[in-house]
Each structure stands twice: as C-alpha cells, then as structure tokens.
Design a protein that fits this description.
Helix content is 42%, strand content 17%. The two termini are 44 Å apart.
C-alpha cells in the first residue's frame, strides 16, 4: 500500500494528531501504512521534530520497516531518523538506562550499578543456565527456605515467576516491595468472589447443580492433602451450590512466608544479574520504570509531545505504565486488535486494549498516588477503526469471525451475541471472491495434507494473484501449513521428505531435542556415572534391539569400540571438546550441530557448571523445549510450515490449518507451576512440604490452592484468537485438517468436513529445491562475563600431554572438598587423594573449599566480570594462600594455569588487603606445590581484549 492514497478511515487517523486515540486496526487493514503516514504528518508540523515523537513497536524488524517507510513519506532522510525514538520498549528502556540509569538499582536497595557494558540476555537457554547457577548459590546461603525448594519440582519455575511479576510491575526492594506492588500478590477478593458467585449459580433455573459444585466433585482425586484439609462433603455441601463461605475460606491464607521466599529469591537474583553484569528484557523495563518514577526532573525532561504505540494488544501492564510516564502530553495513540492478542505467555495483557479507558485512568491514578507523574487529562478517548482489509477475500473474512465464537469443548457455552458485538466487521478491498474454504480429516493426517497440496499445486481452481496482479495456478511456495504445536510441523516435514515434496520449516526448533544434542547428553551421562539411560540411547543408536541393550547393560558387556570411545572422551579436558568429538564420531555436522556446540560452550563459558550440573541443565532444556530459529532459505519454492504464533503479521495465498485435533488445539495445557501468580487470586503455592504430617516427610497438595483453581473458569479466549489469527493469514484459500479425533473448533465452524483416505502411490511432484533445516546461529549471547578457562588455550591439552581427563580430576576435587568439610571419605588406593589429604593435614589455619570468585574489571571503559571457583583457601592471621589442584602428570600447562590463578589472586587480595596473599598449584600426582607469580590486572585486561577480538 506504499504507493496508494489512504482510504477515508486511514486518512481520518492520519490527520488526527492531537489527543487520546484508541485505534482498532483489524487484520490486513494497512496498519503500518497508516501509522507511518501519521508519523510523517506529525513531524511535518511546525515546531515538531522527530525527537519529539516516540513510536513504539514490538520487534526491531518492525521498527526498522517503519523507519524506512517514514523516510519515503517525509522530508527526513534515514540519517536524520537514525537516532529518532522509533524502537521497542526493550530498546527504549536500554537507551534510558544506558544514559541516565546507572544508579537505578539503588532505588530497590541494590548497591550494584548498571553500566554501559551491561549485556542483555536474549537467549533463554543461557539465562536458564545462569539462573540454575544462581539458585545453587541461593540454596546454600538460605537453608531457611529448604522446605520451599523441596516442594518445587523445577527451580526454573521461579525464573518464569520472576519474569511474570516484573511484567506486572511487581518489584522487590531490600526490605519489602516497590510502591504498592505487594497488593498484586495478595490478590483481589472482590474480583474472585464475583467469579465464584457466577460459577456457583445453579443451572436450569435451579434444578441442576452449579458448575462449581460439579467441578469440585473431583476434589481430592489424585491428591494428597495435609491432615487438616476438609472432606469433600464439607467442601461441596449438600444442595445445588457449594457453601457461600467457601470463597473466603479458601481465599484467606497466611502467605507471609511464601511472599518472603519469593521476595528474597527475586531480589537476590536481581543482585546476582547485576553483579554478573547482565539484564534480561523484563529487568530492563523494571529499572526503566523505577528510574522514571523516582527521577521527576528526568521524566519531565524526557516527556514526548507525541506517543504512538503499535501492536498495543501485545503490551504488558508495565509497558502501559511506561507509556504514561514517557508521555509529556495527552497526544497518545495506541493501535492494535484485541482479536490478535496471542502472546500471554510473553506476558501480554489483552485487557490493556479491551479495557483501555478504564486502565488509563486507573494506572494514571496509581502513578500519581504520591506525586504528579501523569500531568495530562486522561479523557476523552477517541475510538477509531480501520476496517478495509487489503489481504483476504470477503468469504475468508466472514469465516474468520466464526473463529471467535467457536466452542473449545463440547460442553462450553458462549454468549455469541455479546462476542459478536465487540467485533468490528472487516470489508475486503477486492471484489474477486473465488475462495475455497474446506475441511478434511483422515487416519493419516500428514499424508492427507501432502495429497491436498499435490491437488492444489498447478490447479487453476485454486488460482492466486501473482506479482503482476494477474491470476495464475499456485506453486508450492504459495502454500503455508500452520500448526498449533511444533512437533506436528516437524513430523509433517519428515513425511514430506519421505515423499519428495519440497517443504521448509520456519520458526523455532528445540535444539536440545535434536539427535545431535541427545547423543551428547547420553555420552555425558556415561562419563558422569555410567548411567543406564546414556548407554541405552547409544546402544539403540548403534542398532541394538531393546532386549539386546538390556542384556548388555545388565552384564556391563559393552562393545569394545564404545568402551574405547568412552576412554577417549574421558581424556578430553573441556565440555566443548567432548561435544565436538561425539559429533565427529556420529557424523553430525552442519548448523544444528553447530548450534548445540555453540550453546554448550556459551553455557560453559558464562557459568561455573560441573559436568553433572551441565547434564541437569540439558535435561531441563529438553523438558522446556527451548528453541532457536530455523529458516527455509530465501528463494526456495517450497511449502512453508510454521506455528501459528510465528505467522503473526504474515500472509499467504493459501493456508492449510493443520492438526485441528482434540488436546492439541486448543492446547490441553499442563498441571501448572508449583508456585504461581494468577489473577485474581494472587500468589499461591500448589505444593507444600511437611516433615511429619503423616509420620513421614512428604510433598503434599495444597487443598486451598486446588479449590481456588477449580473456582476459576477455564478460559479459551486466547485459543480462539489464535484460531482467528491463523484464518486471517489466508489471502485466497483456506483448508482445515484433522485426524481421527478432530477438535471442537472444527465441529463449531461453518464448514463441511470430508473424511478422506489419501492415496500417494502415484505421488510425483515436479523436481525442485528440497529445503532442509538451516539454523540461524545466534551471536554469543549473555553478559560481558568470562570464566578463567575462557583464556586458557585448549591447544595445550591436545596430543599426549599427560592429562587424565575430566572424570579423574572431578573425583579428586570432590574428595578434597568433602575432606575439608569434615566428611568421612576414604582415599582408597588413590595416591593423588593421599597427597591431597597430606596437604590438608599440614595446613595450620582455616581451610575453605570451593569458593566462588568474581573479579570485576573495566576494559576500554566497559565493565566485565571474570568468575570461577577457588579449589582451596588457607587463611591464617597474617596470610591467605590460594591453592589450586591439578591432576596433570606434567607441568606443561602451567603458563596457561597462571592466568586462572592470577584472577583468583586479585579477588582474594581485594578481599584481604591487610594480609599477604600467595597463589600456588598443587600437583596431586606427586604432591608438589608450585608457587605462581600472578599477572597484574593490566595483563588480565589485555587477555579480555585479545579474547574479544
């Protein structure tokens, strides 16, 4: 639409520059066109410059596209707009903190600062690894919270909770909670009671029990409650409703200890992240919000004359409030479409747009509670709609509205009339309407999809518009298959490859669920403890049957070649070396293997993980399904496969919406987190630990949380919006497909469903480019932090160097730590352990094992951190000795180890300025100590510079 005139409703918005505007911009209505033209119109006014206008969108690509479009329609060039505030909330927050917010953490009682070199964590895998390291330290330092951790199935749930709370504007201070954010954790009883009462109304005019009473029939099933939990009859009562006082009984609970636990983990993690010199996206916004709240002069200085926010349906509560704090006037325009709000898992809140007027006034009042921060009037708000659709035919647009009223389950009842009243009808810009809207099911859905694709390609009945505006028969590249889940797309890709149909997957691939990653995990397990799970996988990979593998594992009669390979791996000194050798052995090469290797090396380089911790981390990453992007490659004439979430903002001539199956779409969901925040019930604990409730230690289900969750209605609205987004990606034709158990959505939609038996015996697609996975390997991500082994040249370990491998070294180090801690450990026949024992027995002062050491350095004006673990500190009244164990048989690597000991030296010297500090290597093979002359900090800075080049 870049070279056409705006339609009347677009022009109305473009010319409406001053005041508050809420814009309902439906799918395909030229939103970007209108927003960029409006921006150009604003900056064309006398006295208005680009730096006076804030334009916020939700991806960097979208921001760059908008910048380019504005250049085409304004007097400003790209150079003049290069630094204009056209950016994401995250980028804007980063810029604010970089220029003004170094001391922002102090407002939360944190002494650490934000520096120009503070890095932004974008890779979830890296942050999960760092958080695991943090949790390990927190558990050691806070034994008072052992019961909470015992009740947690996965500590990674705490990271998700912290991110959710930060998006809600709930922040911890040193001694409490920032402003009134604790009220979120307490919940809203009045709002809960409203839901409770509605769910507790008898049905059929009072003759049928309420939905809530029916739901609570399952109370106690597959649950183990503490002894004080009431019986089912007490909960459900004996009438058509549950007792009215149940609402207050389950809502009121002393959560002081739970809130203190979450507070301390949250605050400590903020300190940890800043100490390690990194922030995640949520923390960027957190500190930007605190900065703008606390610094009144800065807020007035920054206040923009005009603010526009695109894709407002994807905004969070904290982003709404940031918008108000950044606005210097009431010239605010938010643009979005509630029907396309599908990112609640990224903390988007659809009510920001559905209840814009109410939230605008409420959030402004909250911000002004103790000072005038929002100084402009919050009324009136002018509603505008963009309704002309430039993407789809009218048939597809009309069909899409049914997605918003489709029943997600057989028993779900919806107020169709009320929902329809909220929908602004869209009008197709084209008069052509030859759309096919079809649905099919099959026992083999994958093959049925391939057969349908084959029937569509080169078929004039499914004509699509070409680049020149004329209609032509479709090609493979005109078709997109959209799915709710990634696994269906991967399986479909495998089937397409089998039959030779060109197909490409675009979106996210679970890196650690690939064969390459699973093989690395298997061999790490074998190296760690000869784990049966590791042997089972490598034997299966080698072609052994299940029974054969069981027999081999039971007898420990492993194939000689595998035993030899295990020996080779044990002699390698680094995790990256192990992964690389496994890939070489099994022939894994290319981008997927590169991503696995890069990720393992990144995790190893930014944490102090042991091999066992790395194994547990990979296991968690497999369970979480952490992803990296996968792209098909430009110019490939192939069918595109994507998840629906990945298609937001995209369009395709022909869409096949696949996997319309029960328990797949809508998502069946999971069991929920053990500690979770939920509106309106607040912060709750699903599992609790008791030492002796029934005479034995056990993790119990919390009966109140169980009942509370059953009182909340199951909400499938976002799943319906996801269905709507999928349908509105189609320009000309739409096909829906399911298997033998189609979902309720398919039953609810006004389309005839044909059951087919696909015949692919004569399948013979035209030869073309057959795309495979190509993975975008991310730039090394994470904080500007290093471990000492980052600077050690691995080449020193290659060849016959006398090393005895990681496993031997780990065993000796573990013995040394346990001996220092006073545990009863035996040296056995191991002379290295005897030498360590003799050393420790000879030391007269206090000994401390496995000490975390972090050295902050400023390099070229940027702050970096080098962190590692000191094997042993020997502390006396006048000196401190750093002792590092090495199991090497020679001293060939001593110059490299000097770098490691130098880092530890400066950490300890700063900690003990009044004592003499020395560093030495203790060679466990012969029991000798070699004193090390440490490098000065200038030399260490040079190492960082050299490594960064």
């Amino acid at each position: 639409m870049s070279d056409v005139d705006p339609n009347p409703k677009q022009r109305d918005l473009i010319e409406a520059t001053d005041g508050l505007y809420l814009v309902d911009a439906g799918a395909g209505t030229g939103k970007t066109f209108t927003v960029t033209r409006r921006y150009a119109n604003i900056v064309a006014q006398d006295g208005v410059d680009p730096e006076d206008v804030l334009l916020v969108t939700f991806t960097n690509n979208a921001a760059e596209e908008m910048r380019e479009r504005i250049v085409r329609h304004s007097e400003y060039g790209m150079r003049e707009l290069a630094n204009a505030p056209i950016q994401t909330f995250h980028s804007l927050s980063h810029d604010l903190l970089d220029e003004y917010g170094h001391d922002a953490p102090m407002s939360l009682g944190i002494d650490e600062t934000i520096t120009g070199s503070t890095r932004i964590i974008e890779d979830e895998i890296i942050e999960q690894a760092l958080f695991r390291e943090f949790v390990g330290q927190f558990i050691d330092n806070h034994p008072e919270y052992d019961e909470f951790f015992t009740a947690l199935s996965e500590t990674s749930e705490l990271l998700d909770l912290i991110k959710e709370l930060s998006a809600k504007g709930v922040f911890p201070t040193a001694d409490g909670w920032y402003r009134d954010s604790e009220s979120h954790l307490d919940g809203d009883f009045e709002a809960f009671e409203t839901l409770f009462t509605a769910r507790n109304e008898p049905r059929n005019g009072g003759s049928k029990q309420s939905k809530l009473r029916k739901k609570l029939y399952q109370y106690g099933e597959d649950k183990t409650y503490l002894p004080e939990a009431p019986a089912k009859w007490d909960i459900r009562g004996d009438g058509k409703q549950v007792p009215a006082d149940l609402a207050i009984r389950v809502f009121e609970e002393d959560r002081t200890a739970l809130k203190r636990f979450v507070h301390d983990v949250y605050h400590a993690y903020l300190e940890f992240a800043l100490r390690r010199n990194y922030l995640n996206f949520g923390f960027l916004q957190l500190f930007a919000f605190v900065l703008l709240c606390e610094d009144h002069d800065l807020r007035e200085q920054l206040g923009y004359e005009y603010v526009m926010v695109d894709e407002f349906q994807d905004s969070s509560e904290i982003q709404f409030k940031l918008t108000l704090l950044l606005a210097g006037t009431n010239n605010i325009c938010v643009v979005g479409d509630w029907k396309q709000s599908i990112y609640s898992f990224q903390y988007a809140d659809v009510d920001n747009i559905r209840e814009f007027d109410e939230r605008l006034e409420r959030f402004a009042a909250e911000l002004n509670r103790d000072a005038d921060r929002v100084t402009f009037p919050t009324t009136p708000v002018d509603d505008k709609q963009l309704t002309r659709n430039y993407r789809s035919t009218q048939s597809i647009l009309d069909f899409s509205t049914h997605a918003l009223t489709a029943c997600a389950t057989k028993n779900e009842s919806l107020d169709v009339e009320a929902i329809s009243e909220q929908v602004t009808p869209l009008i197709a810009d084209t008069d052509r309407d030859d759309s096919y809207i079809e649905a099919l099911t099959s026992e083999d859905e994958h093959e049925a999809i391939l057969a349908k694709i084959d029937a569509i390609v080169d078929n004039d009945d499914y004509a699509v518009e070409g680049d020149d505006g004329t209609y032509r028969a479709p090609e493979y590249g005109d078709i997109a298959v959209l799915t709710r889940t990634r696994d269906f797309g991967r399986d479909l890709l495998d089937t397409a490859s089998k039959f030779g149909l060109p197909m490409a997957y675009e979106g996210g691939i679970e890196v650690f669920r690939t064969d390459a990653a699973k093989l690395v995990l298997a061999w790490l397990r074998i190296l760690e403890r000869d784990a049966e799970r590791g042997w089972a996988l490598v034997l299966e990979e080698a072609g052994y049957t299940i029974d054969e593998a069981k027999a081999i594992i039971e007898r420990e009669a492993y194939p000689e070649a595998m035993v030899a390979f295990r020996k080779d791996l044990r002699e390698l000194e680094t995790f990256g070396g192990v992964a690389r050798r496994v890939f070489e052995q099994y022939g894994h090469s290319g981008p997927t293997a590169d991503v696995v290797l890069d990720t393992i090396q990144s995790v190893h380089g930014t944490t102090t993980f042991t091999r066992g911790e790395l194994i547990r981390f990979i296991e968690e990453a497999i369970a979480d399904g952490s992803t990296h992007d996968v792209d098909a490659g430009a110019g490939t004439n192939a069918v595109t496969v994507q998840t629906i979430h990945a298609t937001k903002g995209l369009e395709y001539p022909i869409v096949i919406l696949a996997n319309m199956n029960a328990n797949k779409f809508p998502s069946s969901g999971g069991s929920g987190s053990d500690i979770a925040y939920t509106d309106p019930i607040g912060l709750r604990q699903r599992k609790v630990y008791s030492e002796d409730a029934h005479g034995v230690p056990h993790v119990y289900d919390d009966w109140k949380t169980d009942v509370l969750n059953r009182c909340l209605p199951q909400n499938y609205d976002e799943e319906r919006r996801l269905l709507y987004v999928a349908v509105t990606r189609a320009e000309s034709h739409l096909v829906l497909t399911g298997g033998t158990d189609p979902n309720s959505f398919l039953d609810s939609l006004p389309v005839d469903v044909e059951d087919i038996d696909p015949d692919l015996s004569a399948f013979d697609p035209e030869p073309g480019e057959h795309s495979t996975y190509t993975v975008d390997i991310p730039e090394p991500d994470g904080p500007a932090s290093y471990s000492p082994h980052t600077f050690i040249d691995d080449a020193v370990f290659e060849g016959n160097t006398g090393g005895r491998g990681m496993e031997f070294g780990s065993d000796v180090h573990e013995f040394a730590e346990r001996y220092v801690l006073g545990e009863a450990v035996e040296t056995g026949d191991n002379p290295d352990k005897e030498h360590v024992k003799a050393l420790l027995d000879s030391l007269e002062g206090e000994t401390r094992a496995e000490i975390d050491a972090f050295l902050p350095l400023t390099v070229d004006g940027e702050k970096v951190t080098i962190g590692g673990i000191i094997d042993l500190l020997h502390v006396t009244s006048d000196r401190v000795e750093i002792i590092d164990y090495k199991t090497d048989l020679t001293t060939h690597a001593e110059d490299e180890y000097r770098k490691q000991l130098s880092i530890y030296y400066h950490v300890v010297a700063d900690q003990y300025p009044d004592r003499s500090v020395t560093a030495s290597i203790f060679y466990t093979d012969d029991g000798t100590r070699h004193n090390i002359t440490p490098l000065d900090k200038a030399a260490l800075r040079e190492l960082v510079v050299t490594h960064s080049v």
